[in-house]
Write a structure and sequence with these properties.
This protein is an all-alpha fold. It has helices at 2-12, 22-41, 59-75, 77-90. It is built from four helices and no strands.
Length: 116
């Protein structure tokens, strides 16, 4: 399991400390994936609260980030929702702060929405 997480950390562009525990890697990776997808979908200026989260640097990192977020939503929905709620609160990503026209497919509440 640790090897898979380390590969995913590398493929998403997450910068981590060499001494990070597996639990720390999992938490940081989950936050990185959720915030990364939110920022990619956000139209307009990034909130200051996510400034320390690196956006994907290339198309491959973006692809891996989006696929991983979708897999988390699909196969680990309860954990995804709990992590999304944690991220929303800790990074001050409350929906009333954002105009609907600025939100893309993902929302800080952890729900995937579709605009018609």
């Amino acid at each position: 399991m640790a090897g898979r997480i380390e590969r995913l950390v590398s493929k998403t562009g997450l910068a981590v400390e060499a001494k990070a525990t597996l639990a720390d890697l999992r938490l940081k990776l989950a936050r990185h994936i959720l915030i990364g997808e939110f920022v990619l979908d956000l139209k307009g200026q990034r909130p200051a609260s996510v400034a320390l989260v690196n956006a994907p640097r290339n198309v491959e990192q973006e692809r891996v980030l989006r696929q991983t977020a979708e897999a988390l939503r699909t196969h680990h929905a309860d954990a995804y929702a709990a992590t999304a709620d944690h991220v929303r609160k800790n990074f001050s990503l409350n929906l009333p702060r954002f105009r609907p026209s600025c939100l893309g497919a993902s929302t800080p509440s952890g729900l995937k929405i579709t605009h018609y």
